[in-house]
Write a structure and sequence with these properties.
With about 120 residues, this protein is mostly beta strands. The protein contains no helices and 11 strands. Strands 2, 4, 5, 6, 9, 10 and 11 form a 7-stranded mixed β-sheet that branches. A 4-stranded antiparallel β-sheet has the order 1-3-8-7, with no helix packed on it. The radius of gyration is 14 Å and the shape is globular.
Length: about 120
Amino acid sequence: QVQLVESGGGWVQAGGSLRLSCAASGRTFSSAAMGWFRQAPGKEREFVARINWIGGITYYADSVKGRFTISKDNAKNTVYLQMNSLKPEDTAVYYCADRERGSPAAKYDYWGQGTQVTVSS
């Protein structure tokens, strides 16, 4: 099993930046990709970004393109989400998730506990 721990959330004013980290542990050898999701109060969970461990192919939601950057450190089993030009609508609990090798596309198998990001105007 894979354990995921997010960190780096907090409060920031609009236009500011935050960097989230997600440290993976356990049977990480079976992980194929990592994704970032977010969920605001009263809203459904939303895909933000993903990255493959091998190759580093990335995908972003339209709402964050040009502002957020997902990256990884394979040696540390850690993924990051650099968030720039933050907007109040970015306020949410951010989760990282693991997609295991062999899992269908869009299926994530393990989830972190989440970290709160609050953007004030």
